[in-house]
Amino acid sequence: MDNGFVWKGIHSSDKNLKIVSLPAISTPEVRENKIIVPGRDGYLTNTDNNYEGELKSVEYDYFDNEFDNIKSWLSGNSKVIFSNEPDRYYKARVINKITLEQVLKKFHGGIVQFDCQPFGYLNEGNNIITIDKATSIYNIGNYKSEPYIRVYGTGDITLRINDNPIDLKGVEEYIELDTELMECFKGTQSFNNKMVGEFPYFIPVENKITWNGNISKIEIKGRWRSL
């Protein structure tokens, strides 16, 4: 991948941006609160073991006159890929007002700030894994993932992921589970009333998948992610 970043599916070089600096590779901070106890030195901490988002800034030079086009592009919400981490993308939004400072008569400089969610989503996590028998799949990220699962089968089915049961009632052709959305559905129709159990996560490394009932195959997007 050429030096730069991809935003809304467009590489920065296609917009005539020359990158001066990319965000440093870092890990997000654990969300925690400091609690001051009167009469006690220091402080206590309280955490929910979740992570803060992270602001990632890119400095660039611009060698064109289509500034309105740049402002329109560097806005809103999308996925961003940085060339120093080409194997993953971040869910982000642009939070700063895009301005250009004239450096020389021939070009300008600017900074864009991406407000990123804490996880880097590995590109490989969007590949579909198809299984038709009990097996194990491997989370190549370093944090639990929130998968999408489509189960093809009929009737009452019990799906087990790492021995955690999910009962699916009255399946016809297929049924879909999306842990990220916390939804059970088929197409545009909600089937939350056909599911009993917790939405599954895939832990890092090995995850065992078994089932009871009439299943012909299962399609999985692991959505592997790393801190």
The arrangement of helices and strands along the chain is EEEEEEHEEEEEEEEEEEEEE
Shape: globular
Report the count of strand segments.
Answer: 20
Structural class: mainly beta
The percentage of residues in β strands lies in over 45%
Instruction: Note the main sheet.
Output: 10 strands, antiparallel
The oligomeric status of these chains comes to single chain
pLDDT below 50 for ≥5 consecutive residues: which ranges?
A: none
| Rg calc | 23 Å
Q: What integer is the average pLDDT?
A: 89
Helix content: under 10%
Q: Helical element count?
A: 1
What is the terminal-to-terminal distance? Answer: 22 Å
Structure description:
- This protein is mainly beta.
- It has one helix spanning 67-73, and strands at 5-7, 10-11, 17-21, 30-35, 44-51, 54-62, 77-82, 88-94, 101-104, 107-116, 120-122, 128-131, 135-139, 148-161, 164-178, 183-186, 189-190, 195-196, 205-221, 225-226.
- The strands form three sheets. Strands 1, 2, 3, 6, 7, 8, 9, 10, 11 and 20 form a ten-stranded antiparallel sheet that branches. Strands 12, 13, 14, 15, 16, 17, 18 and 19 form an eight-stranded antiparallel sheet that branches.
- A hairpin with a 5-residue loop joins strand 7 and strand 8 (88-94).
- The longest helix is centred in the N-terminal third of the chain and has 7 residues, at 67-73.
- The two termini are 22 Å apart.
- The mean pLDDT is 89.
